[in-house]
Structure formats: structure tokens, C-alpha cells
């Protein structure tokens, strides 16, 4: 059970690093770890509204985790155009800061294409460990100069920990198995996004709260998020005595999607 009094006074950097700590023993744990990473970064990094993780597998980029579909859409534009700050960070192995509300000579087609998405600032940090680049951690802000006052060392430490975890998994299981896991994750995204939409409509919550509900309930019930999403979509999740008795954070009763 979470002690809310302790959580309230925990410095953001300590809370973030605690949430993304631990060692991955296999690629099967990767998706859960990356989902935890992007949501923790969004929660604790000042100025950050959305987060995504770009992975390079055999040189091909894909978004392995994201906080909302806006993140996914911006990343997809980069991959289609083969230009953008996230790709530059991953390929060139250096930090990139970009203003998305103005044109940028480095990626003119990209900045023109993403103006409508409402994100005005972006920072991308390369995921490099042991001389090996596996992708980038991408931070998005809705305000101009959103990251002007944020603690850059925190983002650097976060990206380094993520890179170390990713590279260790690659060495254990290999790139081919990682590619297979990413394909499965992409296949499950449609169900998760649909379930989030159901929760948003029925419970009057936003996209972040919908995913947090799925994440917490999946932990309580010891089921995978994608399996829980299928239950939400099919209407299996109904309010009953056992559901009412469960809690998501140790303080509030869990409500069904229709509750």
C-alpha cells in the first residue's frame, strides 16, 4: 500500500528514479518497464506534458512506449519523413532541443507537419549504453520553452538508466526477440487505445487517467494490460461485490468502467 504522506514529500528526482529502478531479466518485461518509464517521466519532469520512447531495431525506428496518441502521431511523422529530433538524437547520439511552433532548418518538413498537434517544445535524449545506441527518450511540452527551467541532469539520468536496461535485455535475448516483442506490443495498442476511449467516455476521465486505471487494475488482478483492455472492450468488466472490494491505490475502491 502506498503511503501518500511519504509520496507527497518525496523530491521529484527521487520519485522518478525509484519508479524506473530495477533490472530486467528478459525482454518479456520490457513493455511494462517502458510504459512505467514514460508515465513516470511525464509525472515528475517539470514542463513535460507527453513522453515517448523511440527504439532502433536493426536500424529501423519504432515507438515502443508513449503517453498519448499525440506522441505516437508525432513520432510516426518523423519515421515517415525520415527526419526529426528524435531520430537525430538516436542516430547521432546527442541531445536535441527543438521548437515545434516555429520552422526549423534542421527538419523543415517535420516541424511544418506537427504544428497542428499542439506541442511547442521537444527534447530528445539518446539511449546509449556501452557505446551502443538503441533509441531515444522524447519529452514533449505544450508551452514555448517548456524545458527552460527543468533539471536536465534528471532527464539525462533517466535516459541513461533506460538505456542500460534496454542494452542488458538485448544482450540477454537478442535483437530478433526484441523485434518480435515490439510487433506484439504494436498489435495490442489498438485494443488499449480503444479501451481507454471506453473508459474516458463512461467514467469522465482523460486519456492519462484512463491508462492509469488500466495499469493499476492490471496490477491488482495480476493480468496483462492488453488482456484487461480486451475485457473492457467486450464488456466483461462489470461492477460486482469482488470488484467493489478491490482498490487501486490502497485508499479508493476500484470502479468498473461503467461505475
CATH superfamily membership of the domain at 4-174, which one?
GAF domain
CATH class placement of the domain at 4-174: Alpha Beta
What CATH calls the topology of the domain at 4-174 is: Beta-Lactamase
In the sheet with the most strands, the strands line up as 2-1-5-4-3
Mean pLDDT level:
77
- Beta-strand segment tally: 5
C-alpha termini separation: 23 Å
Share in helix: 40-55%
Strand coverage percent = 5-15%
The helix/strand class is alpha+beta
In N-to-C order, the SSE pattern is HHHEEHHEHEEHHHH
Radius of gyration: 18 Å
Count helical runs.
10
Mass-distribution shape: globular
Which regions are unreliable across 5 or more consecutive residues at pLDDT < 50? 1-9, 238-253
Biggest beta sheet summary: 5 strands, antiparallel
Named CATH architecture of the domain at 4-174: 2-Layer Sandwich
Organism: Knoellia remsis
GO molecular function: kinase activity; RNA binding
Protein name: GAF domain-containing protein
Biased composition (Basic and acidic residues): 248-259
Structure report:
The protein has helices at 4-9, 12-19, 30-44, 69-81, 85-92, 108-114, 152-203, 207-221, 225-234, 241-245; strands at residues 50-57, 60-66, 96-99, 121-129, 132-141. With 259 residues, the chain is α+β, with helices and mostly antiparallel strands. A hairpin with a 2-residue loop joins strand 1 and strand 2.
Q: What is this structure's SSE topology?
A:
Blueprint: H1 4-9, H2 12-19, H3 30-44, E1 50-57, E2 60-66, H4 69-81, H5 85-92, E3 96-99, H6 108-114, E4 121-129, E5 132-141, H7 152-203, H8 207-221, H9 225-234, H10 241-245
Helix pairs in contact: 2-3, 3-7, 4-6, 7-8, 7-9
